[in-house]
Amino acid sequence: MSEQLPEPPEIAREVFTGAAWSRAEAFAELLAGPGVVRGLLGPREVPRIWDRHLLNCAVVAEAVPADVRLVDIGSGAGLPGIVLAIVRPDITVTLLEPLLRRTAFLAECVELLKLENVEVLRGRAEEFAGKREFDVASARAVAPLDRLLTWALPLLREGGELLAMKGERAAEELAEAEERLRSSGVRSAELVSVGRGKVEPHATLIRVVAGRAPERARQASRRKDRAPRPKRGR
Q1: For 188-216, how does the pLDDT look when each residue is reduced to its tens digit (9 = 90+)?
Q2: 71, 44 Cβ separation under 8 angstroms
Q3: Predicted pLDDT at 222
Q4: Rounded CA gap, 166 and 208, in Å?
Q5: What single string gives the DSSP state of each residue in 144-186?
Q6: Region Disordered: start and end of each range (predicted)?
Q7: Percent of the chain with pLDDT over 90
Q8: pTM
Q9: Contact in structure between 141 and 113 (CB atoms under 8 Å)
Q10: Rounded CA gap, 139 and 143, in Å?
C-alpha cells in the first residue's frame, strides 16, 4: 500500500459492498501508484483518494437508473466511470477519453479489476455523435455546462440523461447555460444532491434530460414530408 494512501473510512464498506469492496481497494492502489506516476492524479490527492474521489464518485450511482448504457465523457483516471462500473454491475460503461496515455491506464485498470461491463473508447465526444447512443452520460470536471452540453447531448437518446458532477458553482453554471439549454431542446435541467450521510459535503449534480434537439426535429419533419402519402380512394 502507498505510504500516503489512508485506510478507507468505515462508510466505504457500506458503499462498496460484496465484490465491489476488493475492486475499490485495488483501484485506490492503482490511482495512488501508477495513476500518480503517469500524471493522471496529483500526488497531493493521494490522502484524499477515498473521500474526495472514490466515495464522491460512487454516490453518483444513486442518480443512475438500472440497466443503462452509460458513457463517461473525458474519463481521465476513470472518475467517475470506473467507480460507477464497480458499484453498479448492472450497467454497461464506456470510458470515453481522447488521450492515449489515459486510455492505456484505463484499459489496464479494466483488465486488472476484471470489469466485464466496461469498454475503453479513445476519441472525442463529437467524433461519435450519430454513431453511438447512450442512456446516460456522466462527466466530472471536464468543462463548463454550456460546453459540456454540446458534447453530451448528441450522444444521448431522446429522454437520456446527462449527470454532470459539479461543486459550489453548480447553480451558477445552470443559470449561465440557460440559453444553451433552451436552444438545445432539453426536457428539463435541475440540481440533484446525492450522497447525504455518506460524503461530506454531499455531492451536487446537474441533471439534464435530453429532448429532441431542434435540428433533429427539423430532420424528422423533412423525412416525414418526403414520405409517400397514401392514395385517396375514388
Answers
A1: 999 999 999 999 988 999 999 999 865 54
A2: no
A3: 44
A4: 13
A5: -HHHHHHHHGGGEEEEEEEEEEE-TTHHHHHHHTHHHHHHTT-
A6: 210-234
A7: 85
A8: 0.89
A9: no
A10: 9
Nine-digit cell string for 162: 446527462
User: Which grid cell is 188?
Assistant: 428539463
Helix (H, G, I), strand (E, B) or coil at 87: helix
- How many whole angstroms separate alpha carbon 127 and alpha carbon 117? 23
Which amino acid would we find at residue 121?
L
Give the residue ranges of the annotated binding site: 74, 79, 125-126, 140
Known binding positions for S-adenosyl-L-methionine: 74, 79, 125-126, 140
CA 1 to chain centre: 28
Judge contact between 98 and 41, C-beta under 8 A: no
Give the C-alpha separation, 194 to 201, whole Å. Answer: 10
| Residues 153, 184: Cα–Cα separation, whole Å | 8
Q: Which of 94, 100, 40, 41 is nearest to 72 (CA)?
A: 94
Report the C-alpha dihedral over residues 80, 124, 151, 153, rounded to 10 degrees: -80
Give the gyration radius of the chain's Cα atoms.
20
Round to whole Å and give the CA distance between 172 and 88: 30
